[in-house]
Amino acid sequence: MLKRVFITVWKFFLGGEGMSFRTGKYLGEAMLVGAATGFVVVAFRYLIEFGRTVLLEGIGHHYALSRMPDGAAIGRMFSVDALLDPHRLILVVLPAAGALAGHLLLRHFRRMDLARGTDSAIRAYHQNGGYLPSMSIPLKSVASVLTVASGGSAGYEGPVTLVSAACGSAIARSMRLDVRARRILMAAGLAGGISALFQAPLAGAIFGFEIFYSSSDIEYETVLPSFVASAISYTIFACFFGWDPLFKMPPAAFDSGLRLLPYFFLAVVIVFGVRLYISIFRTMELRFGEAPMPGWVKVSLGGLATGIIGYFFPDILGTSYSVIQACFTAGHSELFENYGPLTITCFVCFFFMKAAATAFTVTSGGSGGVFAPAIVCGGTLGAAVGLFLARILPAEVGINPAAFALVGMAGFIASAIRIPLTAIVMVAEISGNHQLLLPAMWVCGIAFWLNNDWSLYRSQVHCRESSPVHS
Question: Of the spans 30-34, 218-222, 462-466, which averages the highest pLDDT?
């Protein structure tokens, strides 16, 4: 009797044949995907920290250059002595060397056309039945760490989404599941990867069923598996790295409906910023694509251009998470003593430099994602708008530039990557601030609507009817 009950329960969770309860189908497999993804992201995180310690901080001394704690450091960043610092000169060539090494690694395996991780995963969902080669897990991890940890301006979420999706695809193949199940588990892997990397379990789960379309459509059949995989993956990751949010932000409340008007202005600015960001990215993509030169030359030139920008603005190298933390202190303190007080001009300059450096790194063939750079660009624009409105509006309005930075991040990724639900939840989870959900909803809705048909991911299709999966 007990054996029969056990078999029945097991078939229910694993979606065994003959079960009419479709709600429980593939949840057991999703648990396996979440566990595998969690441990893979943990290993990837250790690899990231090792690579950054050895390359960007060890060889390039990036940490010392971008964070000078003594008050006398103000203005030193652009002094003659600082610009001629040998460590500063290393930053010019280090991103090119790392990107070239990552490119040669992937080039050695000619089947690995995986320079853009999330785009490749989305394409696999729509066109390849959720199939991703298992070799992408180690190769993409090492190539991306070589690129970003050496100073390439990109994010780790691109390789993480690809590696996590490959985990789901590999588990489905090993269990001899059909194509539909493989797609579902691949999406669950996407959810688990984002959940662990950004320490945002709910946002990661939503990402797993929202990322595939540029409209407001979602993949309904991946909803529950994404939630299960996201929860398990995040739990495993947090057991190693803690349960705290990714960033720290001072308290920022929203207690007046009239403040939605300034946030409307922010949404409009974000729309123009997204279009400029995507235009820069597409222009560089076209230029590198048409250039009559070998791939290793292109990726070297892109890395060299990134290094030149990083020579003057070291904080745009790598993930630039230090810039996000600076946005959360906008109007409160002077986090970057080496640049002096953070002003509107400073944040706008960070936006343009980060957008250009990311375009050089990724479109030239460097291995990295564009999700994290979009968050940085949204934060800098939001902080600049917040400082501007605080200057021109009466103090009674109570403009908080840090709040505008957080909401700007949400609006930017909602508009540029077409994931409004993920954006609203993610900025709350990565900052630990859930009091700005209303303005985040307002800005994300407006920016998503006004920026229709603009997306960083070419593999997204407009709606379910446009996907080969459902056509």
Answer: 30-34
- Cα distance between residue 50 and residue 160, in whole Å: 16
> In terms of residues, how long is the chain?
471
Provide the CATH topology of domain 257-464: Clc chloride channel (1.10.3080)
Q: Residue 295, Cβ neighbours under 10 Å: how many?
A: 16
Q: Confirm or reject CATH 1.10.3080.10 for domain 2-246, answering yes or no.
A: yes
Q: In angstroms, rounded to a whole number, what is the distance separating the alpha carbons of residues 408 and 383?
A: 8
Residues in Cβ contact with 286 at an 8 Å cutoff, skipping those fewer than 6 apart: none
Distance CA 108, CA 441 (A): 45
Q: Is 70 left (phi over 0), alpha (psi -120 to 50) or beta?
A: beta
CA atoms within 13 A on the CB side of 21: 13
Instruction: Quote the pLDDT of residue 77.
Output: 52
Residue 426 tokens read as 């993610």
Q: Can you tell me the distance from the alpha carbon of 44 to that of 3, in angstroms, rounded to the nearest whole number? A: 40
d(CA 430, CA 223): 22
Cβ-in-10-Å burial (0-12, 13-18, 19+) of 184 comes to: buried
Q: SS3 for 407?
A: helix
The one-letter code for the residue type at 281 is F
Q: How far apart are CA 432 and CA 430, in angstroms?
A: 6
Pick from 90, 132, 107, 159: which is nearest to 362 by CA? 159
What is the arithmetic mean of pLDDT over 343-360?
A: 91
Which residues does residue 369 pair with via DSSP β-bridges, in sequence order? 155
What lies within 8 Å, CB to CB, of 174 at 6+ separation is none
- Specify the domain boundaries for CATH 1.10.3080.10 within the chain: 2-246, 257-464
Q: Which residue's entry shows tokens 């957080």?
A: 406
> What's the pLDDT at 469?
83
Can you tell me the distance from the alpha carbon of 309 to that of 359, in angstroms, rounded to the nearest whole number?
A: 12
Mean pLDDT (the chain) is 84
Q: Which two tokens stand for residue 46?
A: 């250790």
